[in-house]
Structure prediction request, 158 residues.
Amino acid sequence: MTQLECVILIGLQASGKTSFYRERFASTHEHISKDSFPTARNRATRQAALIDAALARGRPVVLDNTNPTPADRVGPIRLAHTRGARVVAYYFDSTRQASLARNRRRQGKARVPDVAILTTASRLVPPARAEGFDEIFRVRLTDEGTFAVSPCAETVGE
Ligand SMILES: Nc1ncnc2c1ncn2[C@@H]1O[C@H](COP(=O)(O)OP(=O)(O)O)[C@@H](O)[C@H]1O
Ligand SMILES: [Mg+2]
Prediction:
């Protein structure tokens, strides 16, 4: 049985988050993303309701947004712990140059304006255990197109 957990992906646009979800979690975890309701107000509230409903049904979840700041993460972390789930961060360690380049190779709606990536990069705070994460991993995309995942003892980045 998959352990009840809330996985929070953290990283720039085009850092590989959704691809990682598909490869690692699609068969076991529900996918939750604010992209599912782009125009709605109170997106954080709607997202929280989806997280809560899934965990209440015993379904592990993956939160697939940029989730750049502790303020973006504190609500889901508290909610998951209230539901008895462990909370795991995956930090996508991508430079802004690499994300800009991958974004330029995307087509149509999948491509975001460069300024969106630069804005997220200026706000991004690597996850720390003090936020309440039970475990933190760093993810790097390799030149071979695979994901290199390594555990982090305390915090990542800087
Ligand atoms: N392991 C990988 N190595 C290199 N490029 C990748 C890898 N995984 C995904 N990509 C490419 O990177 C781009 C962004 O991936 P995506 O998963 O959509 O990122 P995000 O969800 O963080 O915006 C896509 O164009 C995808 O083809
Ligand atoms: Mg994505």
User: Anything to note?
Assistant: The longest strand covers residues 86-92. Residues 5-152 form a domain with the Rossmann fold fold (CATH 3.40.50.300). The longest helix spans residues 43-56.
